[in-house]
Design a protein that fits this description.
Layout lengths: L7 H9 L5 H19 L2 E2 L4 H16 L11 E5 L26 H8 L3 E6 L11 E2 L3 E2 L15 H8 L5 E6 L5 H7 L2 E4 L20 E6 L2 H11 L29 E4 L13 H14 L3 E4 L6 H24 L11 H10 L4 H21 L5 E5 L15 E2 L2 E2 L11 H6 L3 E8 L6 E7 L5 H14 L1 H4 L6
Parallel strand pairs: 2-3, 9-10, 9-11
Antiparallel strand pairs: 1-3, 4-5, 6-8, 7-8, 7-14, 11-15, 12-13, 14-15
Helix pairs in contact: 2-3, 5-6, 9-10, 9-11
Length: 477
């Protein structure tokens, strides 16, 4: 039994059946990390081996007494560097926060720890989480697990690469504009952006307006993603807009079927989205797999002003990001020269915003949600590519041109991810296939109805059952 090849579900079963000790699991993963992470750079601020092995021994002692903390008992986890884990720095990839050691756990980290995981370090991300390309001046580049000459995406890039290379069995991430979905797609793993409010965000300085980003799970199997969501999710009174339907098990039945599932294929939105050659074809290959399982796939459109929607999105995004950048620049010794250009752009663009601008953009967002809601009267799920281009060299920062069209912003090539975010809908990135060169993975995102996380995961399990051979592919380490 090769421990690092087990998904978290099977690894948990092996630990609880006493087929393997928590120490052996930790040794296996630390060995893998020491072998591959110097090149991969997926995990940062790794704790000392001795400390982690002592924690694993303590978990084994609990099992010897007949005690288990939960399904993550003894399983190593590295937390995305936006999340707080006591004793570890929370750097956001900027040297300005290199020594900001967490005194409390983020709520979802607290819940993962309560289920028994051992936090071993953090996973790398872009500076401030901006731009789907994982590099920063503090830790450097995390390249693609399948081809080191191109990016892994972002901003949960370190987590996705760690999964793909078997440095972690399951992982957490966060998503504002595809930050769980894009790196999952380019790493050939699964990333779920839950419904807004499904995974409460605490502690945060503002909890009423900041309703675009969310934490969530990544995994190598749908059941791992669903189990980790079940652990992370649930109402907490400190987060006033959290969903209130209580703890629940999101794990779908293993024999989940797609029969009768109605899927609306949005493609490139009638040419609105710039798209590189091969992206749509790769996603359509995944849709044909779904059709073989009994799904009914039909073209779908968004009957809204997509340009006005994009402008509203830009306003909301900069309004939420600018205060974070400004707060960082207020730190002693901080200067604009120490901050990435994309963060400064968001800050500067926000300077002229008025309350009226924001309310108008909020009205556009509200109308868009209502339109999306009506689409689910015709469809069970909507489908889109997870990125509009193939992975590009990390040194490029972001693609200036996609499909022959100039990108006006550093993130316009990820416009396809904003629709789920802006409507607060759950969306999952699933492996769809590969570029014709065989090295670059491609993902398809399925978007569920309001609060339809369980239905979305059921469909994802049905797809995984049909695409088992594709899903089993792994990179050469």
């Amino acid at each position: 039994m090769n421990l690092i090849d087990l998904d978290a579900h099977d690894l948990s079963n092996a630990i609880h059946a006493r087929q393997v000790s928590c120490r052996e699991v930790m040794q296996a993963y630390l060995g893998r990390i020491h072998e591959l992470n110097p090149r991969a750079n997926a995990i940062v601020n790794l704790a000392p081996d001795d400390t982690l092995l002592q924690q694993a021994d303590a978990r084994d002692a609990q099992l010897a007494r007949g005690e288990s903390m939960g399904w993550l008992h003894g399983i190593p986890q590295a937390i995305k560097d936006t999340g707080q884990a006591i004793g570890f720095p929370t750097t956001f990839g900027t040297p300005l926060l290199a020594h900001s050691t967490a005194a409390v756990d983020s709520l979802y980290v607290q819940r993962m720890k309560a289920a028994g995981c051992i936090v071993i370090g953090k996973t790398n991300m872009p500076e401030f989480g901006l731009g789907s390309n994982t590099y920063n001046p503090l830790f450097g580049v995390t390249a693609n697990a399948w081809d080191e000459s191109v990016t892994c995406g972002g901003s949960s890039g370190g987590a996705a690469v760690a999964l793909s290379l078997r440095l972690l069995p399951v992982a957490d991430g966060s998503d504002f504009m595809g930050s769980l979905r894009n790196p999952a797609g380019w790493s050939h793993v699964i990333g779920l952006r839950p419904s807004q409010g499904r995974v409460p965000g605490w502690p945060r300085p503002e909890l009423f307006v900041s309703q675009l980003a969310t934490d969530g799970p990544l995994g190598r199997s749908v059941r791992d993603v669903a189990r980790l969501l079940s652990t992370q999710a649930g109402f907490d009174a400190r987060t006033p807009l959290a969903l209130t339907d209580g703890p629940r098990d999101f794990v779908p039945p293993p024999d989940a079927s797609l029969r009768g599932l109605r899927v609306g294929w949005l493609a490139d939105l009638g040419g609105h989205l710039a798209m590189e050659d091969g992206i749509l074809a790769c996603c359509e290959q995944a849709l044909r797999t779904m059709e073989r399982g009994g799904a009914i796939v039909e073209p779908a459109t968004l009957d809204v002003d997509l340009h006005a929607l994009w402008q509203a999105w830009l306003l909301w995004r900069r309004a939420l990001i600018a205060p974070i950048v400004a707060m960082t620049l207020s730190l002693p010794g901080a200067s604009r020269e120490q901050v990435k250009p994309e963060a400064l752009w968001e800050l500067d663009q926000a300077a002229g915003l008025s309350n009226a601008d924001f309310i108008q953009a909020a009205a556009v967002r509200t109308a868009f949600y209502q339109h999306m809601r009506t689409l689910y009267e015709r469809f069970d799920l909507l489908a889109l590519p997870v990125a509009q281009c193939w992975p590009f060299p990390p040194a490029q920062a972001w693609p200036r041109e996609v499909g022959g069209r100039t990108m006006q912003t550093y993130h316009q090539w990820m416009e396809c991810t904003l629709y789920a975010t802006f409507a607060g809908l759950p969306a999952i990135s699933l492996p769809a296939g590969f570029h014709e060169n065989g090295r670059w993975p491609c993902g398809i995102q399925l978007i569920g109805p309001p609060q339809g996380d369980a239905e979305l995961l059921h469909a994802a399990q049905g797809y995984e059952n049909l695409a088992a051979e594709l899903m089993a592919r792994r990179p050469r380490a």
